[in-house]
């Protein structure tokens, strides 16, 4: 290997700009040479147990032979073809699979590139639906505080306007309506006082609200809060009563992360529009989808401009659709439910000691999600390196130190992961 090949990590500081970071970030990013199973191999030879599933998407771990094979097979046919005026088998098969998995009540599937774009698509669907029905007033959305729905302009307008990451852009974002996050915890009933902020706001703004958007059961990057499934049931009933659409953002929670295949299933409800992404391809390629009802799709299609006005260049990429099909089959053919339950027990046991630390506010676990909420924000420069020194990859944000392991993680690796997290927090 030439010196140039060996020194490629030095190019990072010269050319790259990483997410949520300044240029020339210090300490510099850790350089990954390869990944297999639940381990990341750094160029210096160290191996890290991945507690993040690469931002929650690599549910099968890395370099899985089944997913690799799906890519290789599809590549021999075509890696991409435009979706305007053309179609192909992987997209058709994947759409059919998604419709089946979500109960057949959302029979129209629109593919996109990322979670943020799936949310943008959902917003545009809701707006265009009401315009097609001749209702020009319904132009705003109700969203929960502590919510996170993406980093593009439309999606940003739905994120918490005060504690979220996007307050710098507030002057140019569409002004949405925010209500307090549910106080009722997962597994508990939703009392009248828990639901009152949403009910009062929705009744007050009914005439101007196109849709309510929520992350079902689990609020992800906005706060890692787990709330009552009964809240969703009451919200579905109220939306039906008032004639308001309900959008479920399952980009982070879809495909088993909470212990159900989709988090909406905890409540037994069906949204009018559903967004999925992240684990859709098992973390192999970027792909998302927005599913909706026959009524919404037909209403938009039967009124000017007689089409849904959106079209990503790489929409329904055949490689991504093929690997998504393989990933879904791999998940469904595995003992994923018992694996998630096993990981839940391991997280509960492994993170319980963190609750004894003075600097910890709370520990909470749901499915394959473990959260240690600190009393104060962590110092990323210090804590990230400390985790790497312990042989694990954990990426906290704000006050939240959390784990979302791949579903294939073994009990011994999970114990190593949680004990390393405890040691780092204890030594802060």
At a glance:
Helix content is 36%, strand content 16%. The protein is of the alpha/beta class.
Tell me the layout of helices and strands.
Elements: H1 3-6, H2 10-15, E1 32-36, E2 39-42, E3 47-50, H3 53-56, H4 65-75, H5 89-101, E4 108-112, H6 115-132, E5 140-144, H7 153-156, E6 177-179, H8 192-205, E7 209-214, E8 218-219, E9 225-226, H9 229-242, E10 245-249, E11 273-276, E12 288-292, H10 294-301, H11 318-333, H12 336-351, E13 360-366, E14 369-374, H13 380-389, E15 392-393, E16 400-403, H14 411-427
Parallel strand pairs: 3-15, 5-6, 5-7, 7-10, 10-11
Antiparallel strand pairs: 1-2, 2-3, 4-12, 8-9, 11-12, 13-14, 14-16
Oligomer: single chain
Going by helix content, strand content and strand pairing, the class is alpha/beta
CATH architecture classification of the largest domain:
3-Layer(aba) Sandwich
Report Rg: 22 Å
Shape: globular
- CATH topology tier name of the largest domain: Aspartate Aminotransferase, domain 2
Please outline the major beta sheet.
7 strands, mixed
**CATH homology group of the largest domain:** Type I PLP-dependent aspartate aminotransferase-like (Major domain)
């Amino acid at each position: 290997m030439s010196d140039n090949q060996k020194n490629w990590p030095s190019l990072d500081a010269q050319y790259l700009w990483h997410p949520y970071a300044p240029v020339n970030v210090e300490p510099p990013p850790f350089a990954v040479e390869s990944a297999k199973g639940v381990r990341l191999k750094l160029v210096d030879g160290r191996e890290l147990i991945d507690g993040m599933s690469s931002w929650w998407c690599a549910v099968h771990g890395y370099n899985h032979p089944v997913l690799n094979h799906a890519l290789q097979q599809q590549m021999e046919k075509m890696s991409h073809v435009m979706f305007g005026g053309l179609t192909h088998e992987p997209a058709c098969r994947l759409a059919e699979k998604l419709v089946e998995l979500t109960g057949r009540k959302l029979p129209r599937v629109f593919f996109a590139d990322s979670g943020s774009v799936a949310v943008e698509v959902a917003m545009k669907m809701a707006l265009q639906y009401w315009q097609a029905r001749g209702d020009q007033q319904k132009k705003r959305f109700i969203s929960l505080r502590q919510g996170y729905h993406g980093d593009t302009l439309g999606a940003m307008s739905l994120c918490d306007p005060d504690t979220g990451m996007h307050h710098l852009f507030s002057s140019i974002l569409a002004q949405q309506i925010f209500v307090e996050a549910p106080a009722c915890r997962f597994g508990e009933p939703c009392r009248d006082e828990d639901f009152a902020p949403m009910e009062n706001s929705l009744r007050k703004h009914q005439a101007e609200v196109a849709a309510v958007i929520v992350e079902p059961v689990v609020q992800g990057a906005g706060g890692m809060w787990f709330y009552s499934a009964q809240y969703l049931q009451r919200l579905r009933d109220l939306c039906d009563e008032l004639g308001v659409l309900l959008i479920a953002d399952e980009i982070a929670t879809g495909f088993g992360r909470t212990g159900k295949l989709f988090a909406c299933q905890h409540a037994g409800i069906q949204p009018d529009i559903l967004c999925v992404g992240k684990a859709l391809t098992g973390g192999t390629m970027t792909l998302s989808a927005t599913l909706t009802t026959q009524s919404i799709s037909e209403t938009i299609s039967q009124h000017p401009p007689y089409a849904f006005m959106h079209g990503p260049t790489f929409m329904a990429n055949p490689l991504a659709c093929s690997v998504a099909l393989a990933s879904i089959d791999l998940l469904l053919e595995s003992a994923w439910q018992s694996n998630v339950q096993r990981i839940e027990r391991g997280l509960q046991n492994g993170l319980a000691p963190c609750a004894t630390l003075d600097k910890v506010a709370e520990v909470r676990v749901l499915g394959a999600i473990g959260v240690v909420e600190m009393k104060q924000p962590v110092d990323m420069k210090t804590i990230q390196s400390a985790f790497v020194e312990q042989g694990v990859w954990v990426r906290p944000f704000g006050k939240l130190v959390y784990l979302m392991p791949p579903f294939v993680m073994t009990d011994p690796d999970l114990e190593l992961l949680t004990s390393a997290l405890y040691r780092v927090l204890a030594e802060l």
